[in-house]
Amino acid sequence: MTVQLTIPRPDDWHLHLRDGAMLQAVLPETARDFARAIIMPNLVPPVVKGADAAAYRDRILAALPDGMTFEPLMTLYLTEDTDPEDLAAAHASGLVKAVKLYPAGATTNSASGVRDFDKVRPVLDKMAEIGLPLCTHGEVTDHDIDIFDREAVFIDRVLDPIRRSTPGLRVVMEHITTKNAVDYVASQNKDLGATITTHHLIINRNHILVGGIKPHYYCLPVAKREEHRLALRAAATSGDTRYFLGTDSAPHTDPNKLSECGCAGCFTAPNTMPLLAHVFEEENALEKLAGFASENGPAFYRLPVNSESLTLEKQATPVVFPQKIETQDGPVTVFDPGFDVFWKVA
Ligand SMILES: NC(=O)N[C@@H](CC(=O)O)C(=O)O
Ligand SMILES: [Zn+2]
Ligand SMILES: [Zn+2]
């Protein structure tokens, strides 16, 4: 007997689509399963102004294959020069759904990010006033802070002070990787949400480092100890509506991953939904997958749940996923969970 699970069509609340040839190649991998996605603005140069976001949205829609439907939810990249009025206009027109905070130097293409948080205070006040969410890459970049501690230190030194000084600002802690983040969400109100990636529910730091270094498991924030992965699993499957899926699917070509200074990012768009079904089944929480992947995100972003549905099907033999996708820039390796998966999208 085939086991089936039907959920409202999911959305991805944290996605990197890139641009040009890469965009062309990766967009169908998301649009196949997801109705909408929050599109990360860390292009080179970044998506900073409303006009940049409008042009990027048009490039995404132009790259969408015929017959596919997909709605890109655009974001602006917060810089110390962001103009609160430009941002408010982009929000009022319905174009922009969130603003992204990258501490300068924290991750891929974050050089234009924020160094001095006092400089963006007027922007944050404006966002609180108009109800525009702030998405945070939550890691400090201080050289003396160990990379495995950078998320926890960000919560204490940056996030909590922002939340205290800007009451009413709605914040998403993006791609959380620690029990510290889960504990912080628990201590806060409904104005704080958190996205969790597929891969952080599957790998811990041993997967990256034991038995040889595995560049395809390297992403930022870097995967932590097992106790943290277990806390993320508990959070994702808890039914707490403040947790929702943000895959952080972040394609880089193999030459850029398999290099002396390899890029950070896992490419999970092609197999995320089957992997999540596997994880939620392991946690005896298949009935919670609809909340995590399809309902909690729209509730936070004040958007309707998609009216279409997606059916996942469990088969008797392992599903074979493509190992790579080809792009004009080179091959991109698909995230390999390292175990057999029996779920597929019907
Ligand atoms: N997650 C990653 O490891 N990489 C992302 C950037 C990010 O989300 O931090 C990317 O753009 O490649
Ligand atoms: Zn990030
Ligand atoms: Zn990301």
UniProtKB/TrEMBL annotation:
Alphabetical UniProt keywords: Hydrolase, Metal-binding, Pyrimidine biosynthesis, Zinc
Residues that bind Zn(2+) 1: H14, H16, K100, D248
Top-level EC class as recorded in UniProt: hydrolase
Residues reported in the UniProt entry to bind Zn(2+) 2: K100, H137, H175
Residue numbers binding substrate: H16, L17, R18, N42, H137, L220, H252, A264
Pathway(s) served: Pyrimidine metabolism; UMP biosynthesis via de novo pathway; (S)-dihydroorotate from bicarbonate: step 3/3
Active site location: D248
Pfam families, sorted: Amidohydro_1
Gene3D superfamilies according to UniProt: Metal-dependent hydrolases
CDD domains: DHOase (cd01294)
GO MF assignments: dihydroorotase activity; zinc ion binding
Annotated InterPro entries: Amidohydro-rel (IPR006680), DHOdimr (IPR004721), Dihydroorotase_CS (IPR002195), Metal_Hydrolase (IPR032466)
Domain of life: Bacteria
Reactions listed under catalytic activity: (S)-dihydroorotate + H2O = N-carbamoyl-L-aspartate + H(+)
Cofactor-binding details, from the entry: Binds 2 Zn(2+) ions per subunit.
Any GO BP annotation: 'de novo' UMP biosynthetic process
EC number from the UniProt entry: 3.5.2.3
Keyword check for Metal-binding: yes
UniProt cofactor(s): Zn(2+)
Modified residues (N6-carboxylysine): K100
Gene Ontology cellular component terms for the protein in this record: cytosol
Assembly and oligomerization: Homodimer.
Similarity comment: family membership: Belongs to the metallo-dependent hydrolases superfamily. DHOase family. Class II DHOase subfamily.
HAMAP family, per database record: PyrC_classII (MF_00219)
Name used for this protein in its record: Dihydroorotase
Organism name: Phaeobacter italicus
Gene (UniProt): pyrC_2
